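Checked the freezer inventory, then went back to the computational side. Two predictions to log before the end of the day. The first one is the construct we discussed on Monday; recording sequence and tokens without edits.
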Amino acid sequence: MASRYSKPVRILIVAPSFDILGGQAVQAARLLERLRQEADLEVGFLPINPRLPGKLRKLQTMKYVRTIVTSLAYIASLFRHVRRYDVIHIFSASYFSFVLAPTPAIVIGKLFRKRLLLNYHSGEALDHLQRWRRSTIPTIKLVDQLVVPSDYLVRVFAEFGLRAVPIYNLIELEKFPFRKREPLRPHFLSNRNFETHYGVDCVLRAFAIIQQHIHDARLIVAGDGPQRTALEKLARDLNLQNTEFKGRVSHGSVVELYDSSDVFLNASEIDNQPLSILEAFACGLPVVTTDAGGIPDMVSSGKTGLIVPVGGYEQLAAAALRLLDDPILAQRLIGQGREECEKYQWRAVREQWLNVYYDLSNSRIICLETSEAGSRNIE
């Protein structure tokens, strides 16, 4: 691509680092890596969860105290760095996280007259906007561009009079090697954080049914979070065998989990566009999932995966067993799931991101020139 400007467009990505487990950190890292390869861009990264230096880092191990000190360090970092960039690309979750991370970046970005891009990722958007309408909607209206990773979130924001542009999540196929699973083994994987709305308890109940039919079936449960103790207790209560809780798995090691498994189970109650499903597609795992939120937009039942109703652990188990009993279906889903990943590759989303950045930067230049001209006229 020929250069659109005489000097690079300066972009600051404000997002979680890998110290926070989750899809936003993964997406921010993938996008940052790709954007830094673009000659027309100068890209920086500012973590919403900065590590304090030296002995001060002990404060971040103390409950409540860590929120205060990390927030203060984050806000100070925004004041230091925002002024150097043209476009501030802000990753966003929902509820209190929206207040702690995106809101300061939006306010400080406006203070320095920067162009603001809010990249909202949470599947809880509908509930967030309904419950926090008075504070959240006016804050979002301050940004210049709202970008979401799914058509589902476009529809949600439209219900509140907010226009969002969809740019899909990024998956790096070369980092997720495909393995043909033939025959399909009863080796199952769940890779979601241990939050109530991700329905890992439903996966455990489904696996209990699966083990009644296949005694040597195996389940790997990767992730961590506030529900961990309750989920481990549920596994004991269900007398699950061959079930391993892996805990938090680093982004660099997650590929090994997919490679060791043959079927991906997801039982979200609320969701948007789970990266774990895309990663399962990429590695060749057939997917059985609930129909929460935006999942039906990315998983076509009977084509790229099997979909069951939210909360339907019995249906989840039945669909998983169906895959093992029907190798033709399983292989069709595996092949078409891999093909589905094409629309999430960098070559598919690159132009969309670049167009957004250039449009925002250009509008900022026009705005500044107009403002300066107005000032000269007044003088």
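The second is the one RB wanted added to the comparison set:
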Amino acid sequence: MDKRITLIGDGADVVTVRAADAGDHVFEVTADWVNISGFTVTGATDDWTAGIHLYNADHCSVSENNVSNNRDGVHMGCYSNNNTLQNNTASDNSCRGIYLSSSSNNTLQNNNASNNDYGICLSHSSNNTLQDNTADSNDYGICIDDSSNNTLQSNTMSGNTYNFDVSSHSLSHYIQNIDANNTVDGKSIYYWVDQQDKQIPDDAGMVGVVNSTNITVKDLTLTNNTQGVLFVYTGNSRIENVTTSDNRDSIYLWYSNNNTLTSNTASNNSRGIYLWYSNNNMLSDNTANSNNYGGIFLVHSSSSTLTSNTASDNNLGICLYTSCNNSTLENNNALYNEFGILLDSSSSNNTLYHNNLINNAYDNAYDYSGTNTWDSGTDGNYWSDYNGTDPDGDGIGNDPYPIPGGESVDRFPLMHPWTGGTLLKGDLNRDGILTPADAAIALQIAAGGSTSCDPATLAAADVSGDDRVTSLDALMILQAATAARDV
């Protein structure tokens, strides 16, 4: 249609217009002020075809149509602006139900998109209004890709693999006007821009925070979105006790610094906790388990502290990838992953100690660079595949553990898993229990071996509390080991 025209069918349940050729559009609109309503439109199934295709067409109206079983249901492309899509059903299309590409200032209202790959998708399209639309049972419900300043009001997304997706490559593309009346599986979307000193309400189903500071995200359960929690250029904020599952990225920080992430759980996501160009963050007591591709995954993110996190049953447990430098990893557990802790060749000057690396399928750790430090100077990490010996029984192997991949070594590998920053009184071989072997170590220290002990071991050996290690301490440990008394 290359001229202004109005086509009105007797109703989508009455009139069906089928593509004469699966490789061509059913309706191709290249003129302004075209109106199409009241049809079922189907059969354009080859690549780059659509049931209704607007190409550089403005001020058109597409309403009351059923666009189904095409590649794209309705496609507005190549600078199609100021159009209205209203009361259409876009279902069972192999790619997108409704697709805007490089098109702006359009209004999409009261449309229903279901059983498509993408329900409603905006790509490089800005200043559009989406209101009262429903996207259900798609792979992606509503997707905004490299598009800015769009307004979303009272849209409903449910039963999609990923209900809501904001995928962008610049700060401006993350600037959207999205109100809390938009819902994912019955919960509100909170998408805040330029906010400070606030806490996300507890009815959130997806959280996006852009260019903000001192925001708290706490005590939420977030599922089935591209990101459960999204921080963009957001700092000095906190994410705490958030449970996420079945998202693409559980918690995603993008150019966001000086944040604290603590006691969060991420399971069955593509990536669990994901930091991109985000520095000086604190991650503690988080759990990333069960089939995440990366449990905790840092890219171009440096000077952070990871402590007491657990990554299990993932492809990559904890990964520092591409210029992740000067971070500390302490007291983390990486177990039953394919790779426990992985550092790529450009990630250097990181310090790792008191971590437990247990039964990871390919390697407990892999360090391509060889410029990272795998011990504190007195203690290293626990390796389930370590075969060294501990002749003096101090809980630290005498043989270094070479890290696969490069030249790094753990000089002080632990003989037993690290159980915390403070040793149990009397547990001198650090196996978590008191045995006669601990008493023997205490006696050795009392006889003059204290100069080779670190302060934590000396403190643990002084069970009598007299600020020295004597045979009395050894006796008390032996008595406790035989259940004669408690320490």
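For RB: The first strand starts at residue 6 and ends at 8. The mean pLDDT is 93. Let me know if you want it refolded.
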